[in-house]
């Protein structure tokens, strides 16, 4: 869809900063999107503009009123991006990880006594660490469902087999930053609700957000957290949705302040405003690939186009193009999560026999191609250790990447492994 529309990929790339050149090293191909996507130029401009404004919200002056309106608009924009149900709250925090800790802590402490906090071994430590800590503090049992090593997935069926009526809190990883596989969020949430309907369900959507396709109305979860720097915004804040029932639980707040509020201290209007820039971009892209006019329908159309483009890039990376062999065809290479996995979202992790992953990453860096090493540490050991691997190479695409860039990767890999 994107690649087949003349001029569209160029128009997309023109909206991002440093799309083909690093400000420190010069020309490069950026395949480290899972570590943080490229930033929209509009976000950089908005950040600079708001950083210079001295006024704060809640004052009796026009500037303060304008800031309040900008925040309110951004919350509505984010609600549309999430397709969040009526009610609940949208708010920012320090980071996605910090927000997951807050939501999981409040759910564990506020849920009825005893019972289970249910999660899975595929989860990023942001949610898994928070659940481990706060389940213990709250006197609850932390149960982890094993993921499937071959596919890099945990399924709704696996949750259904493990969930019990005494599950008080459940955590779900929407997409893995190591395997690149996306979990069936709506099906997993339904499996939990079928047995433990009152459980608080909290989702780590940090890796998933840049691929589009978030529908919290369909999922019916209580919390969903993203890190906007992974979805074309900037570092320095996280963004969360919390349902009314989760917001009603006791949590950190100022004495005698508004009931149920999650925000602590003066908000960064610029953070909110930059997420409006992200939503504007999704709506613009949706208008390029569809005839939709409704904002939510535009966001959905953009998500479909992003998914299709990234699937195409993954296919080229795995199976090759022209006379270039794909990663799956190169000698000694193993693809994490399997070669043809329908759950893959814009990411291919692999390791090569006789070639330590850090050496491959360094060699690609010297070729002007930026990828990343994932090690069997506290971030990725849950995936790599069961595979008997100390490390792997993560190549993460985004819809603004081109097939020509993937071809350059394959050409470089053939030389490196020769």
Automatic annotation (TrEMBL):
<feature type="domain" description="Aminotransferase class V">
    <location>
        <begin position="30"/>
        <end position="247"/>
    </location>
</feature>
<keyword id="KW-0663">Pyridoxal phosphate</keyword>
<dbReference type="InterPro" id="IPR000192">
    <property type="entry name" value="Aminotrans_V_dom"/>
</dbReference>
<protein>
    <submittedName>
        <fullName>Selenocysteine lyase/Cysteine desulfurase</fullName>
    </submittedName>
</protein>
<dbReference type="InterPro" id="IPR015422">
    <property type="entry name" value="PyrdxlP-dep_Trfase_small"/>
</dbReference>
<dbReference type="InterPro" id="IPR015424">
    <property type="entry name" value="PyrdxlP-dep_Trfase"/>
</dbReference>
<keyword id="KW-0456">Lyase</keyword>
<dbReference type="Pfam" id="PF00266">
    <property type="entry name" value="Aminotran_5"/>
</dbReference>
<feature type="domain" description="Aminotransferase class V">
    <location>
        <begin position="324"/>
        <end position="409"/>
    </location>
</feature>
<dbReference type="GO" id="GO:0016829">
    <property type="term" value="F:lyase activity"/>
</dbReference>
<dbReference type="InterPro" id="IPR015421">
    <property type="entry name" value="PyrdxlP-dep_Trfase_major"/>
</dbReference>
């Amino acid at each position: 869809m994107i690649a087949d529309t003349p001029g569209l990929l160029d128009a997309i790339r023109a909206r991002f900063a440093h799309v083909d050149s690093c400000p420190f090293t010069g020309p490069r191909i950026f395949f480290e999107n899972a570590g943080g996507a490229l930033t929209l130029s509009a976000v950089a401009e908005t950040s600079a503009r708001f950083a210079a404004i001295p006024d704060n919200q809640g004052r009796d002056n026009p500037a303060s009123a304008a800031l309040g309106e900008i925040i309110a608009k951004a919350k509505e924009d984010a609600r549309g991006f999430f397709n969040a149900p009526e009610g609940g709250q949208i708010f920012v925090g320090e980071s996605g990880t910090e927000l997951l800790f807050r939501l999981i802590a409040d759910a564990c402490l506020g849920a009825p006594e005893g019972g289970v906090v249910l999660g899975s071994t595929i989860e990023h430590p942001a949610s898994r660490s928070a659940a481990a800590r706060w389940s213990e503090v709250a006197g609850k049992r932390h149960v982890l469902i094993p993921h499937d090593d071959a596919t890099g997935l945990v399924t709704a069926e696996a949750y259904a087999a493990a969930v019990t009526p005494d599950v008080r809190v459940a955590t779900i990883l929407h997409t893995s930053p190591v395997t690149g596989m996306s979990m069936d969020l709506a099906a997993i949430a339904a499996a939990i609700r079928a047995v433990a309907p009152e459980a608080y369900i909290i989702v780590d959507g940090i890796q998933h957000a840049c691929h589009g396709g978030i529908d919290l109305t369909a999922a019916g979860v209580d919390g969903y957290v993203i890190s906007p720097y992974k979805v074309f915004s900037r570092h320095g804040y996280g963004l969360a949705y919390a349902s009314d029932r989760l917001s009603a639980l006791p949590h950190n707040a100022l004495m005698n302040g508004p009931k149920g509020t999650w925000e602590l201290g003066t908000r960064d209007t610029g953070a909110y405003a930059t997420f409006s820039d992200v939503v504007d971009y999704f709506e613009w892209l949706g208008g390029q690939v569809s005839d939709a006019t409704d904002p939510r329908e535009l966001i959905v159309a953009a998500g479909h186009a992003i998914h299709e483009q990234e699937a195409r890039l993954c296919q080229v990376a795995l199976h090759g193009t022209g006379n270039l062999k794909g990663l799956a065809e190169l000698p000694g290479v193993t693809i994490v999560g399997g070669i043809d996995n329908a759950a893959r979202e814009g990411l291919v992790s692999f390791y090569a026999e006789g070639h330590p992953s850090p050496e491959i990453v360094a060699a690609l860096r010297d070729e002007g191609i930026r990828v990343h090493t994932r090690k069997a540490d506290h971030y990725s050991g849950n995936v790599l250790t069961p595979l008997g691997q100390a490390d792997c190479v993560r190549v993460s695409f985004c819809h603004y990447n081109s097939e020509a860039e993937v071809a350059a990767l394959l050409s470089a890999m053939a030389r490196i492994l020769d």
